[in-house]
Structures are given as C-alpha cells and as structure tokens.
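Quick one: structure for this chain?
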Amino acid sequence: VTGMAEYPENIIDTLKKTFQVYAIDAMAEAEKLGNSRVFNSIVLGLAAKHMDFSKEQWIRTIEEKVPPKTIDINTKAFLCGFEA
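Got it. Here's what it folds into:
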C-alpha cells in the first residue's frame, strides 16, 4: 500500500502458474474515487465475487459497519472491486 515493500519480479505471473490469481491496483482505483483510504473496500469487493454471499448482503454489511459519513464512498469502492 505504501510502496515500501519490494516484491519479486513477475510475482503475479509466477503465482498464476500455480494459483488462480485476481489482481487489481486498488490504490490507483481508490485515488480515482478521490479517497486512497478505501483501497481495502476495493479489495473486499474483488474477493467478495468469489464468496457465497450476495452483493446485496455485502452492501448491507458495509452500511451497518462503516461510519455513516463513509457509507457512500465505501460502497462505491466495494462495487469498483466487485465489478472489476
């Protein structure tokens, strides 16, 4: 997230040889939404596509758990990942 970590070259391609990999530049997408702090909601949205809960259940959970003033941006971020 901070850019401080060093990852091995071609890590995504290497992982794809063995695993199903889903990748998104969540920080870049969060910045497009105007709030870099919602990158985790984008990652959650991407992961949620592969879980046994509906999109509506996830959105309802976001509405119940995040601070009220952040519901809209977190929902937009979640949908960004979910629809990626």
